[in-house]
Write a structure and sequence with these properties.
The chain is of the alpha+beta class. The chain has four helices and six strands, in the order ββββαααββα. The longest helix is centred in the middle third of the chain and has 19 residues.
Length: 114
């Protein structure tokens, strides 16, 4: 793993090579970035980590900063623009490096009516 693919926040590692955030609590707590497909998924993970007895406010800030770093490095944009620009929900595909409006994603995935 090269230093270009791994960014360290004080207690959260952003590993772009494996698409994983590693929260350094009493044990390594890995979060697969590929599960961050929508703003709801991001919030779900933030709330999951916040419920851990070893999590404090500073760690939550580091987690949000790590998500921001991952978005900037992978999508060349801020997390808000990737997941929810102007409050509009987007579907995110980390492997394809795409972020599209959820309504466009639903239209594309809907079966043809012909």
């Amino acid at each position: 793993m090269t230093s270009e693919n791994r960014t360290l926040h004080p207690r959260v590692i952003v590993d772009l090579e494996t698409h994983v955030l590693v929260v350094r609590g009493p044990y390594p707590y890995e979060i697969d970035l590929e599960t961050f497909t929508s703003p709801a998924e991001v919030l779900d993970w933030i709330l999951q980590v916040s419920g851990k007895p070893w999590c404090d406010r500073a760690l939550l800030g580091e987690l949000v900063a790590a998500i921001e770093t991952a978005c900037h490095e992978w999508f060349d944009d801020v997390a808000q623009a990737v997941f929810c620009p102007f409050g509009s929900t987007r579907r995110v595909d980390w492997l394809a490096r795409t972020s599209v409006s959820a309504s466009a994603s639903r239209r594309r995935d809907a079966p043809s009516q012909t």
